[in-house]
Amino acid sequence: MAIFQRFQAKYVGRTGAPVGVFVAVDHLRRTGRLSEEEIYRYALADAWFQENLPNPPFYGDGNSIGAVTWFREHADGMTGPLKPLLDILDAKNVAWERKISGDPGQIVYQDQWQVGVIPSLRLAMTPLPYPGKPGPNDWFQVREHYLQVSGMQQ
Questions:
Q1: Helices marked H in the chain — which ranges?
Q2: pLDDT value at position 151?
């Protein structure tokens, strides 16, 4: 049986599943809780994943199907680069976990590193674990700015 792993915060987002670490860090950014240096580390980690991990097509329309991604068991080369994001969550006291499952949901996408699934159970959305409401979802423009400043423009 295949085993999958997901790194997620311990609060539920709009998909009815706990949010992944990228979304959790972006919520911190969009509520003004990250320093410039933390945003820069987030931008570098995100750029690495954009270059090295295929982007499932369901993200193209903003994920209208509410899928979540899980790494395949053998994707250890992909999980190590999550460390800067996990460090940010730890520094901001946002609880996260590494979940393991043999059946994470209905697979709607797969590649060599990950699967995209429709969760078999949808939970009620929970509030952020800190006060505030996220500002605009402008990450791609913000990331581009930080990568230009660092000389690492995509």
A1: 21-30, 36-52, 76-79, 83-91, 139-150
A2: 65
Cα(12)–Cα(20) distance, integer angstroms: 9
Strand partners, 57: none
The pLDDT score that the predictor gives to residue 141 is 87
Whether residue 2 contacts residue 73, with contact meaning beta carbons closer than 8 Å, is answered with yes
Tokens for 87, please give them: 């460090």
Say whether pLDDT at 28 is over 80.
Answer: yes
The Cα 101–Cα 27 span in angstroms is 26
Residue range 32-46, pLDDT digits in tens = 999 999 999 999 999
Sign, Cα dihedral of 122, 47, 143, 83: positive
| Residue 97 contacts residue 132 (beta carbons within 8 Å) | no
User: What is the Cα–Cα distance from 64 to 2, expressed in whole angstroms?
Assistant: 26
